[in-house]
Amino acid sequence: MDSLLFIKKCKELVRDYTNKHTDKSDEVPEFDVFVVWQSKVLQNNKALLSTTLFDGMYYEVTFNGDKSEIYFDAYKKFENICIEYK
Asked: Which of 38, 41, 58, 72 has the fewest CB atoms inside 10 Å of its own CB, making it the most exposed?
């Protein structure tokens, strides 16, 4: 799978997941899906993605080229702590 096709698929997966997991009592807001980081090594792809929603979610999508399988992980950000390093 080439990188452009992989990213297109990743964005579709994140959009579908987000739409399915949005509170059903609320109207689904408009949002964008964007790539934070991406890597392709040999036949494998990996990307970290997020949305413009303020839900603290981010997503990791991995394509295993040997098995033609996609793995999808959804994470919730709980904290962002600054640690001074000297």
From this structure: 41
- The Cα 49–Cα 58 span in angstroms is 6
| CB 63, CB 44: distance < 8 Å | yes
Please give the Cα distance from 47 to 41 (Å, whole number).
12
How many independent structural domains does the chain possess?
A: 1
Measured between alpha carbons, how far is residue 18 from residues 1, 11, 26, 32, 64 in Å? 24, 10, 13, 11, 23
Domain housing 63: 3-21+31-76
- pLDDT above 90: residue 14: yes
Q: pTM for this structure? A: 0.88
* Rounded Cα–Cα distance for residues 54 and 60 (Å): 18
